[in-house]
Structures
1.
Amino acid sequence: MLRYGQVLFRPGWAVYEHEGGLLLRARISMGTAAQQQLLAEVIFSNLVAVGRSLYGATLERAQGVEIHLSYSRPSHSVCHRRAFDTPVTFDCEHSQLFLPAQVLDIPVRTANRPQHVVFQQQCEEMVRGLNSVEKTTVTVRQLLIQSAGDCLDFARVAKLLHVSERTLRRRLKTD
């Protein structure tokens, strides 16, 4: 996964406050124009599907949600209207989703407070595990093996492990 992470975990998302709501902007920079268009369509349709799953018909009736796409109107643009069920604008500067404040206040229909507490505790355990110093040497060795000939310098290894170079040196020294 680490080797292909730069492809699999893109696009990155940027979030901006904008006119009483939020803009979720997809940062799609890899691939040809056609591949970028396909990726934008896939990620926004998945985002809409997740929204429908979490919020149900409430989200469908929400006013002011907009999708802006950075490519020209394709011949299949009628499919966008059906898939997204929200206004879609083409030829925009960025591919992004605008969510007005009232949409952000819609409660999740599947909210379950006890499960949320358990989920949050599990997430905290996972975060603590990321900071574990027990297996730093093993992890670095795996990164180097998975790099398949790409020369990973110390700074890049530290970045991949989400630690500073100083922390990585200290952990390797204690291992």
2.
Amino acid sequence: MTTIASAGTSTAEPAEDSGHPLAREVAAALAEHFSGPFYVTPDGLQAPLIDSLGSVVRLENVVREDIAVGLAAGARLAGGEPVLLMQNSGFGQSVNALASLVLPYELPMLLVIGMRGTDADDTAENLVMGRITEDLLRMFGITARALPARDPGPIVSMAAADLRAGRSSALLISPGLFGWKATA
């Protein structure tokens, strides 16, 4: 069983023989660079990351992304380094919370966004958000970086530096990064 430390991080290491290797590596980097809290909304693209992250930090499951943004804003005001995992359709749901709370009051947080409607995911209901997510982030002044398939630590470290400099940041997860495949 995982033991939760007072800062919201776990003292356990992810199991070496379970889960996706890259997801374990990203989870370890997030746990190393961010104190949290870590808010999670459902996202099949990130399921391996969510599982791995849950073995090293305490996750707070939230049903809607805009609610997660509000919780993260409060956590930031309390001195936390909030991390939100969501898919880009949920990012669309959270636009107002970001535009009217996070940005004007300069409450930086890390958004880890599963990029549905891009690359291998050509489902019609996800294509619009797939096309506009990066543009929305850019309009908000949120630096977005695609998480690479190899050596993700430096990219996670750059996102942490953004937060510590008072800027929100986003890590973008492509559909196949953790092995997700479209189903018929």
